[in-house]
Amino acid sequence: MQESELIVRRIKEGTVIDHVDGGKGLKVLDALGIDGKDGSLITIALNVPSGKYKKKDIIKVENRFLKDDDTNKLAVIAPSATVNIIKDYKLVEKRRVSLPNEIERIFRCSNPDCVTNSSEHIESVMDVIDKDGRVLRCRYCNRLLDVNQLKYR
Ligand SMILES: [Zn+2]
């Protein structure tokens, strides 16, 4: 077992998000709404050495399995992350995150005049037009959006 795996304790049931880019871990927690208020055990390791020059963050959340929405958020914030689903201490599923072609609901359009920011309660829909550059476009007002500057709904 590698040293980095020993830093955080094993979990019985839940999700391990590994290979989060160093420094993005707290942002991932925020985006996924993981705050520990439900009492489940959360362990997070920041800046774990990974390879010769890189650092990564690792997040372990007990009793929670990521949904599609969560995986989409993760793909936007930490595209190199891997999601490991643990059941009865065993790794039952390992998946890489990938950016979908469209992202619904997650982000708020940065255009204050956009209909999705009005009182009409219209959910945002954004097309991913550049997966490498992570550029989105609002389907309602056509504004180009940099995911690093977007706020969550
Ligand atoms: Zn818009």
Describe how the helices and strands are arranged:
Layout: H1 3-6, E1 14-21, H2 25-31, E2 42-50, E3 54-62, H3 68-77, E4 82-87, E5 90-96, E6 102-104, E7 107-108, E8 125-130, E9 135-138, E10 144-146, E11 151-152
Antiparallel strand pairs: 1-3, 1-4, 2-3, 4-5, 6-8, 7-11, 8-9, 9-10
Write structural notes for this entry.
With 153 residues, this protein is mostly beta strands. The strands form three sheets. It has a five-stranded antiparallel sheet, covered by helices on one side. It has a four-stranded antiparallel sheet with strand order 6-8-9-10, with no helix packed on it. The protein has a two-stranded antiparallel sheet with strand order 7-11. It folds into two domains: 3-96, Aspartate carbamoyltransferase regulatory subunit, N-terminal domain (Alpha-Beta Plaits); 102-152, SH3 type barrels. It is built from three helices and eleven strands. The N and C termini lie far apart (39 Å). A hairpin with a 3-residue loop joins strand 2 and strand 3 (54-62). The structure holds zinc ion (ZN). Zinc ion (ZN) is lined by residues 109, 111, 114, 116, 138, 140-141, 143.
Provide key terms for this protein.
mainly beta; Alpha-Beta Plaits; SH3 type barrels; 2 domains; five-stranded antiparallel sheet; four-stranded antiparallel sheet; binds zinc ion
Q: How many domains in all?
A: 2
Q: Helix-strand pattern, N to C?
A: HEHEEHEEEEEEEE
Highest CATH level, the class of the largest domain: Alpha Beta
Distance between the termini: 39 Å
Shape: globular
**CATH architecture field of the largest domain:** 2-Layer Sandwich
For the biggest sheet, the summary is: 5 strands, antiparallel
Helix coverage percent of residues?
Answer: 10-25%
Uncertain regions: pLDDT < 50 for 5+ in a row? none
Order of strands in the sheet with the most strands?
A: 2-3-1-4-5
Number of helices: 3
Give the helix/strand class: mainly beta
**Count of individual beta strands:** 11
Give the overall average pLDDT.
88
**CATH level-4 homologous superfamily of the largest domain:** Aspartate carbamoyltransferase regulatory subunit, N-terminal domain
CATH fold field value of the largest domain: Alpha-Beta Plaits
- Give the DSSP E fraction (strand runs of 2 or more residues): 35-45%
Bound molecules: zinc ion
